[in-house]
């Protein structure tokens, strides 16, 4: 198999992964634990010493552990996301190890205040997927019954309410009856 990526490419991709991890507020150990590896294993990806980071399936696995996507990794790197795979000639679709880009349902919202600093500041554009439920500590966009959109960090939910963080780290309880939809933030884009 020809090696098409250089050591500097591997290092740059590893640095982009490290930036995503730091934005998520995770240590190498915590990030590695989410995918079943040690902090040393995660560190090898970030230092560019583990070439598997060029594989789309590995990118999906590692970025998902950070609450991000391979597209967010590509944006951190400053390169366009890879094109989708071509359909197999046999008429059967073979997606191989490639990943699909953002879904058509992905929406964007630009923050106009610093209520969620340092997680996200004014001017940051958030991509979110309606219908995708957030994980603990992940950003979420809450569409209220009156049409207002609230951006918070998801903590947990029960049958009656959502518990979120926001407004300078304070905890907030939002009654489910006051919400229309909760959507996971899938990427933060600095403008």
Give a structural overview.
It is a single chain. A hairpin with a 4-residue loop joins strand 3 (139-144) and strand 4. Strands 1-2-7-3-4-5-6 form a seven-stranded antiparallel sheet. The chain has 191 residues and is an alpha+beta fold. It has helices at 7-23, 28-34, 39-46, 56-65, 70-77; strands at 107-110, 125-130, 139-144, 149-157, 161-166, 170-175, 179-189. The chain starts with 6 loop residues before the first helix and ends with a strand. The protein has five helices and seven strands, in the order αααααβββββββ. The chain is elongated and about 50 Å long.
**Biggest beta sheet attributes:** 7 strands, antiparallel
Give the amount of beta strand, in percent.
25-35%
Which secondary-structure class do the elements indicate? alpha+beta
Known CATH architecture of the largest domain: Ribbon
What is the H level of CATH, i.e. the homologous superfamily of the largest domain? Umud Fragment, subunit A
Count every beta strand, where a strand is a DSSP E run of 2 or more residues. 7
Q: Which term fits the overall shape?
A: elongated
The succession of helices and strands, N to C, reads HHHHHEEEEEEE
* Count of separate structural domains: 2
* Straight-line N-to-C gap: 38 Å
Helix fraction by DSSP (H/I, runs of at least 4)? 25-40%
Please tell me how large the radius of gyration is.
18 Å
Number of helices: 5
In round numbers, the mean pLDDT is: 80
CATH class group of the largest domain? Mainly Beta
| CATH topology annotation of the largest domain | Umud Fragment, subunit A
Strand order of the largest sheet: 1-2-7-3-4-5-6
Oligomer: single chain
Regions with pLDDT < 50 over 5+ consecutive residues? 88-92
Pfam families: HTH_31 (PF13560)
Region (Disordered): 77-96
InterPro entries: Cro/C1-type_HTH, Lambda_DNA-bd_dom_sf
Domain HTH cro/C1-type: 17-73
């Amino acid at each position: 198999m020809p090696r098409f990526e250089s050591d500097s490419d591997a290092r740059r991709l590893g640095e982009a992964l490290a930036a995503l991890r730091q934005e998520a507020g995770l240590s190498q150990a915590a990030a590695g634990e989410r995918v079943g590896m040690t902090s040393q294993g995660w560190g090898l990806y970030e230092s560019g010493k583990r070439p598997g980071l060029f594989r789309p399936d590995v990118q999906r696995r590692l970025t998902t552990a950070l609450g991000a996507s391979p597209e967010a990794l590509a944006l951190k790197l400053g390169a366009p996301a890879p094109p989708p795979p071509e359909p197999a000639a046999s008429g059967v679709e073979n997606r191989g190890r490639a990943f699909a880009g953002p879904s058509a349902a992905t929406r964007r919202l630009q923050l106009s205040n610093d209520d969620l600093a340092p997680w996200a500041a004014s001017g940051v554009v958030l991509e979110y997927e309606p219908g995708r439920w957030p994980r603990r500590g992940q950003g979420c966009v809450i569409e209220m019954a009156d049409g207002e959109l609230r951006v918070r960090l998801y903590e947990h939910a029960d049958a009656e309410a959502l518990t979120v963080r926001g407004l300078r780290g304070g905890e907030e309880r939002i009654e489910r009856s006051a919400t229309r939809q909760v959507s996971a933030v899938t990427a933060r884009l600095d403008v």
